[in-house]
Design brief:
Elements: E1 2-4, E2 16-20, H1 23-46, H2 50-76, E3 82-85, E4 88-92, E5 108-112, E6 116-127, E7 139-146, H3 152-161, E8 177-181, E9 184-190, E10 196-197, H4 200-209, E11 214-224, H5 230-243, H6 246-257, H7 261-276
Parallel strand pairs: 6-11
Antiparallel strand pairs: 1-5, 2-3, 2-10, 3-4, 4-5, 6-7, 7-9, 8-9
Helix pairs in contact: 1-2, 5-6, 6-7
C-alpha cells in the first residue's frame, strides 16, 4: 500500500475506470437555478414588491452561478476515482468537486493485488433519527478488505481532504472514501453528494473478471442509532464534524446528550476546533 500524487499513477487504456456521475450534480444545479429565476421573475410577472423576489431569488441564482464551474468541470474532465488492473488498483481519495485543493497533496492510494483480501458491496442505512439528514440517507459502498491495516499516512490524507478548516476551497463536502475498520478501505458508490459510474453491479463483475475475490451478494446493514454503543455514536458525530456537516452533527449530539440548540452548537464547535488543531 502506497500513497502517491495523482500525477504519479500510470494510466492504461485497458484499465477498468470508475468516475463520478455528472448527472446528479447537473440536475441539482438546474433545479436551484430555476427556483432562483422563478423567485426573481414572480414580482415582474404577477406584481408585488421587487425586493421580496430578490431576497429569495438572488441567493439561489448566486449559488447556482458558484456551482456552474464544478458542473462544467465534471462534464469536461476525465477525472477518475478508481482504476483497476489485474496486478493492482488505484483509489483517489478526492472528489472532483474538491479538485481546487492543492495538487501537491498526495491523495491516491495504490494497492497491489495481494493487498486485497476480499471485495464487499454493502448498502448502509442509519435509522433512529427524528428527521431527514445526510447521515441517515441510504448509501451503497464498495469495501476493499485488506491483508494489513490501513497505513497512517492514508488516514492523515483522508482527514486532510475533509478538514473543515479548508472548507472554503472545497465543494459540497463530497467524501469519496471512508475507513470503517482498520483493515478496510471503502468507496462511497452512491450517497448524498456523489454517485460513481458504471453501476456497482457492473463494477463487481469486472473486478471478478480481473481476478479479485469478490463477494457478489450485496450486504444490507441497518444501523439503529439507539443500538449503537456510546463510543460508536460519538465516533459518528465526530465524522460529521470532520466532513463539515455541522447541522447533522448538532442533531446527533442532541439525540445523544439532550440539551438545547445553543448548547449543542457550542459543543460541536468545540469539537471542530479540536479537530482542526
Amino acid at each position: 500500500m502506497r500513497l502517491v500524487l495523482a500525477s504519479a499513477v500510470r494510466e492504461h487504456d485497458s484499465d477498468f475506470v470508475a468516475r463520478e456521475s455528472a448527472w446528479r450534480l447537473s440536475a441539482a444545479w438546474i433545479a436551484i437555478a430555476l427556483v432562483g429565476l422563478a423567485w426573481c421573475l414572480v414580482p415582474l410577472v404577477r406584481g408585488g414588491p421587487l425586493w421580496f423576489g430578490l431576497v429569495f431569488g438572488l441567493p439561489c441564482v448566486a449559488f447556482a452561478a458558484w456551482m456552474a464551474r464544478s458542473v462544467v468541470r465534471l462534464w469536461r474532465s476525465s477525472w477518475w476515482i478508481l482504476r483497476v488492473r489485474r496486478d493492482g488498483l488505484a483509489l483517489r481519495l478526492r472528489s472532483q468537486l474538491n479538485s481546487d485543493l492543492p495538487d501537491e497533496w498526495a491523495n491516491v492510494v495504490l494497492l497491489e493485488r495481494q493487498d486485497v483480501r476480499r471485495v464487499v458491496a454493502e448498502r448502509v442505512d442509519l435509522r433512529g433519527l427524528s428527521h431527514e439528514s445526510a447521515v441517515n440517507t441510504p448509501r451503497v459502498r464498495l469495501s476493499f478488505e485488506l491483508t494489513s491495516p490501513v497505513r497512517a499516512e492514508v488516514r492523515r490524507s483522508l482527514e486532510r481532504e475533509l478538514d473543515p478548516g479548508i472548507r472554503g476551497r472545497t465543494h459540497l463536502r463530497a467524501a469519496v472514501a471512508t475507513i470503517e475498520r482498520e483493515d478496510s478501505l471503502s468507496v462511497s458508490w452512491s450517497g448524498p453528494s456523489l454517485r460513481l459510474e458504471p453501476s456497482l453491479r457492473a463494477t463487481l463483475r469486472e473486478l471478478e473478471r480481473l481476478g479479485y475475490p469478490v463477494e457478489r451478494e450485496l450486504k444490507r446493514t441497518t444501523l439503529e442509532w439507539s443500538r449503537l454503543d456510546r463510543a460508536e455514536r460519538e465516533r459518528r458525530i465526530d465524522e460529521l464534524v470532520r466532513s463539515g456537516d455541522m447541522l447533522g452533527a448538532i442533531r446527533l449530539w442532541r439525540l445523544e446528550h439532550g440539551g438545547g440548540l445553543a448548547e449543542a452548537k457550542a459543543a460541536v464547535e468545540r469539537r471542530d476546533k479540536r479537530n482542526a488543531a
